[in-house]
Structures are given as structure tokens and as C-alpha cells.
Amino acid sequence: MPERLTTAQRSANMAKIRSTNTKPEMAVRRMLHGAGFRYRLHDQRLPGKPDLVFPSRKKVVFVHGCFWHRHSCPAGQKVPSTNREFWQKKLSLNHERDTRQLDGLAQLGWIGFVVWECELKDPDEVLRALKRFLNSADGDA
Ligand SMILES: [Zn+2]
Q1: Of 50, 66, 110, 111, which one's alpha carbon is 20 to 30 angstroms from that of 44?
Q2: Which residues are 115's β-sheet partners?
Q3: What values do phi and psi take at 111, rounded to 5?
Q4: How many helices (H) and strands (E) does the chain have?
Q5: Cβ atoms of 76 and 67 closer than 8 Å
Q6: How confident is the model at residue 65 (pLDDT cuts 50, 70, 90)?
Q7: Rounded to an integer, what distance in angstroms lies between the CA atom of residue 140 and that of residue 137?
Q8: What is the rounded distance in angstroms from the CA atom of residue 133 to the CA atom of residue 113?
Q9: C-alpha of residue 137 to centroid of ligand 1, in Å
Q10: Where do the domains of the chain lie, and which CATH numbers do they carry?
């Protein structure tokens, strides 16, 4: 028999799942490494602890799950039907924090780029966009 959890417990469990070294992040790391780029991981000194850091280029890459980071795609606009208020609040706080962190990075002279989980359905396109971003002088992707 599966263990029965209250909605609050289940929400707390789901909230804990969000973490570093996620599958989409590993996919991005692998593709960039394969393309010859070298980077640092999760630099604690930078706002938002960016997933990939390219110090000599002063650029960072975040790999964001659509649900957790409120992407504009359908997966990112979903709110679980139980405990809606909890989720709405939590997810919009996540989104605000992301915006703040990108601002904070910009103020320090770093340029940030976000790869969305759903975009990884087309890895070739993601790699092209990342190369454009990393190789451009001003970070225009
Ligand atoms: Zn998405």
C-alpha cells in the first residue's frame, strides 16, 4: 500500500526535490563540455549560484526547470490543483528571485543566459544558442 501523505506533506516533499545537478543541467554541461567549453559549477560567490560559470568571459548560464522557475511555456504556467495558494506563492517568489539574481549579476558586470528545460527537446538549437551567447562580445544570443 502506498503511504498516504497529507497535501501539506506532499507539497513539502515536492519543494525539497528542487536541487542542483538536475538532469537538464547535466545535459547542458555535457553538451558544452563536448563543444570544448570549460566552466566552473555553482559559484557560491555570485548571485543565484549560477549553474555554469565562465570566468574569463564573465558569463553565466542557468538551467531552469520550467515548473519551478515559471517559464512562459505550458509546463511553466501549471499550478498544482491541490494547495494552490501555497504553490502560487512559492512559484512567484522563485520567479522574483530569479529576476533579482540576474539583476545582481548584471550589476557586477556578469551576463546571464537561461536555458529552459523544455528547450532541451531540441539540443542542437540549445547548443547553437549557447555558442552564440558565449562567443559574442556582449552576450547577445
Ligand atoms: Zn518551458
Answers
A1: 66
A2: 63
A3: -110, 130
A4: 5, 4
A5: yes
A6: very high
A7: 8
A8: 8
A9: 27
A10: 57-130 (3.40.960.10)
